[in-house]
Amino acid sequence: MRHLLDTTDLSLQEIDEMLSLAMDIIENKGKYSAVCSGKKLATLFFEPSTRTRLSFEAAMMELGGNVLGFSEANSSSASKGESVSDTIKIVSYYADIIAMRHPVEGAPRVASRKSEVPVINAGDGGHSHPTQTLTDLLTIFREKGRLGNLTIGLCGDLKFGRTVHSLIKAMCRYEGVKFVLISPKELSVPDYIKTDYLDEKGIEYVEVEKMEEVMPSLDILYMTRIQRERFFSEDEYLKHKDAFVLDMPKLENAKADLTIMHPLPRVNEITPDVDEDSRAKYFEQALNGKYIRMALIITLLKWAGETDED
Ligand code: NCD
Questions:
Q1: Which residue from 155, 163, 241, 287 has its CB within 8 A of the most atoms of ligand 1, so it is best to mutate?
Q2: Active-site residue 101, yes or no?
Q3: How far is the CA of 227 from the centre of ligand 1 (A)?
Q4: Which one from 40, 53, 101, 162 is the annotated catalytic residue?
Q5: CA-CA distance, 71 to 73, in Å (whole number)?
Q6: How many C-beta atoms surround the C-beta of residue 73 within 10 A?
Q7: Global pTM value
Q8: What angle do CA 53, 157, 143 make, to 5 degrees?
Q9: Per residue of the chain (310 residues), what is the pLDDT tens digit?
Q10: In ligand 1, which atom is closest to the CA atom of 47?
């Protein structure tokens, strides 16, 4: 049984195939409208979400399938003390595929061991968020026409930002990728990402505390929110909450074909006037999230022997 717990669960070829499938879905929507007819997706969200949960549900509906689930832990039996393992075991009797978000790192992996159906990690604490990364890869591919030979600036909360961790793990597998890590020292990328991925693969990267100085070198600027819910104290959060604000003056020296991304939700780290700039691609990115999740659902169900789509 194949699950998607981290981006590294997929080979580069499988990622390529999934991106191609997403592109085909975009170009030939009608062709896929009944591919998951009679199938059910369960979305189990123990943590808040807008885009991820709704794009998963929209994706399954557009494939002709059905959805069930809950959007907060309080409305599930977790509030009565049920373990994640028990919840998943039962839900896997009711659904053909499960997308799960949980505040505890590794919870989807534990869940996958008890599940009778494929489990998708839709975000586990500050650890990883592989379907956001697939969304990001599709966006980069559509904007740049390639996934290699790019300089990517990641800015904001690189310590707790799970989208950043997953994106680094995925992008460091492509040729000629360089990272510019822009954060306060206290919110820098965790050491294991540096040692196990960047250093291990000999990837070029720099760590800086200001975005202005590196702006001209960037092909992609990936902004992130300071992850308030992961701080140990509100004071710590308040210290960093205005660390980076991308506005039009800061883009003055940026490349004409820079791609500005953000997994969203945004708080104050990108001023609204930037939305009007043609380089801002974060809303397109959110739409790509639906298409890549359609491709992911089709692929995992096919691997599980549940559909005959190929
Ligand atoms: C991200 C997440 O949940 O990690 N949101 C998303 O899924 N698009 C980013 C965030 O919450 O800051």
A1: 163
A2: yes
A3: 9
A4: 101
A5: 7
A6: 18
A7: 0.96
A8: 65
A9: 999 999 999 999 999 999 999 999 999 999 999 999 999 999 999 998 889 999 999 999 999 999 999 998 877 777 777 889 999 999 999 999 999 999 999 999 999 999 999 999 999 999 999 999 999 999 999 999 999 999 999 999 999 999 999 999 999 999 999 999 999 999 999 999 999 999 999 999 999 999 999 999 999 999 999 999 888 899 988 989 988 999 999 999 999 999 999 999 999 999 999 999 999 999 999 999 999 999 999 999 999 998 765 5
A10: 3
Q: Which amino acid is at 25?
A: I
Which atom of ligand 1 is found nearest the CA of 157? 12
- Residues within 6 Å of ligand 1 by CB: 51-52, 123, 129, 132, 162-163, 225, 263-264
Separation of 165 CA from ligand 1 center, angstroms? 12
